Amino acid sequence: MQFETDTAVDKAMELFWRQGYAGTTPQELASELGIGKGSLYNTFESKHALFMRALRRYSERRLEHLTDLFLAPGPIGPRLKEAMIVLAGVGEHQRGCVMVNAAAELGPADVDVNRIADDLFTQIEAVFRQAIAQGQKSGEFAVDRVADTAASQLLACVIGLSVLVKAGGPSERFRGVIDGIVDGL
Known about the structure:
This protein is mainly alpha-helical. The protein has helices at residues 5-19, 26-33, 37-44, 47-71, 76-88, 98-106, 111-138, 147-167, 171-183.
């Protein structure tokens, strides 16, 4: 059976996101992708290798979204808020962030997951740092805040909110947290 590898990785990412790594069996992956288990292993080598591809795909998509968002014109504050809402999954679903979930589930036991997660978080923080510096330069944000520290705080807020989103709760509360932290810049 022929199938599109990128589409298969996207479908696998969605399944891992819903069920976690440990909660997803190779048979469930094969069924979700519409292929046999043999094809799954022939194409992706292992469940873990497919999971790594799914995490890398998730990272690429998140970074593409952030790049597009911050290349758009307009004030930085609303774009920072939108970025944080999307990254934490506020109002979209109750799955949190797939990368936060993966790091929490497999963290100390899986160096590969940690490496991918750390890379994504580092890049998100860099985007936040650049956005804050741009907002300071334009006069939108106070210049007495250190952009590096503020970017780290935004990242920590996104990661924490992602966990809270997964646990449930009103999205209005989470949006209020995001408004407060960005408005405080």
